[in-house]
Protein: Thioredoxin
Amino acid sequence: MSSTVELTKENFDQTVTDNEFVLIDFWASWCGPCKQFAPVYEKAAEENPDLVFGKVDTEAQPELAAAFGIQSIPTLMIVRDQVAVFAQPGALPEAALTDVIGQARNLDMEEVRKAIAEQQAQQPAE
Structure:
């Protein structure tokens, strides 16, 4: 059984709102590197049952890909407490994915939110 969730524009917001830690794999069936990354992602999902591992088929969900400015696939994104804390194109090797998950787990989300607020405060009003 797959431990990943197929994300669509219908369930995306709910999934990200209801879960404090969501990994998202933007992929497509024709993409070679996506197919290579899939078993690595699936294994990480099995090893981290407390996290939500989602997959967005960019062919079936072009609005989601566009909303996040996905330019190349696969792209891995991590959302914690409704904040995107990581986004990187390319198929990660298993060790790198494990490392990224560990780093995201260790983030102090209060600090992240403070940094975002400071960045937003420094941007000129439009």
